[in-house]
Amino acid sequence: MATYALVHGAWDGGWSWRGVARDLQAAGHEVFTPTLTGHGERVHLASPEIGLDTHIMDIVNMFRYEKLQDVTLVGISYGGMVITGVAERVPEQIKELIYLDAFVPHDGESMADLVTPEFWAALEQAAAQYGDG
């Protein structure tokens, strides 16, 4: 059977994949649904220093410590940014990438390049108003 790693989007956590994970496991697959640093039940770790590189390393380290090989890596929404970075760092461990309604950046692109200026401005405003930037 296959090994899946399912990466959630922004404002979510690994638990958001619960139903999908159960279905895949019932079919005999191995499934990993990590929560990215600063998200979901790990929100207590949020800080201005946490960013895309941290989230990429969350998944790369999961691959390393779980000794994962031939993984089907799935990202939804912001998770597409994450899995793209993971694929650059450990391509030999990935069987396939699946972008599920996800951002698919080209080399050098950030989220700011992939959303409308109005959406990006709203994110910056929320960060300034409710967070530490």
DSSP strand content: 15-25%
Number-wise, the strands total: 4
What oligomerization state is this entry in? single chain
User: Helicity, in percent?
Assistant: 25-40%
The name of the CATH superfamily reads Alpha/Beta hydrolase fold, catalytic domain
Into how many domains do the coordinates divide? 1
CATH class placement: Alpha Beta
From the spread of the alpha carbons, the general shape counts as: globular
Question: How many angstroms does the end-to-end distance come to?
Answer: 43 Å
Strand order, largest beta sheet: 2-1-3-4
Radius of gyration in whole Å, from Cα?
A: 15 Å
Task: Look at the helices and sheets and give the structural class.
Answer: alpha/beta
Mean pLDDT: 95
Order of helices and strands: EHEHEHEHH
Report the major sheet.
Answer: 4 strands, parallel
Assign the CATH architecture.
Answer: 3-Layer(aba) Sandwich
